[in-house]
Amino acid sequence: MKRARTVADTRARWLRANQTDAERALWKCLRELKTVGFHFRRQAPIGPYIADFASHAARLIIEVDGGQHGLEDGVIADTRRTVWLEGQGYRVLRFWNSDVLGNMDGVMRVVRETLGLQA
Question: What are the C-alpha distances in Å from 36 to residues 29, 31, 116?
Fold first, then answer.
């Protein structure tokens, strides 16, 4: 039986087709973790939110944030979102676009350490 597509599914599909440069670069690196047993989904609907990247098995969400997330409204919304996601058993890592684009080795070191892998 085919599941009906929700608004979140439609939005997630649009976001996957319109990734930022930072999301595209991180996705390339996260896909390589499949070889060591970690599968990530991009723009994954979870409850009322769409996570940039999620490994359901590892209960890890990775968010890549642009400048709007540093504004007061963004900080408040991100805090609410993180609290909800952590309440569902996920750990949430957040990286700035500039960190992903300028320090991918450092970003992936944090991700690998969080997954219990050697950096």
Answer: 12, 10, 11
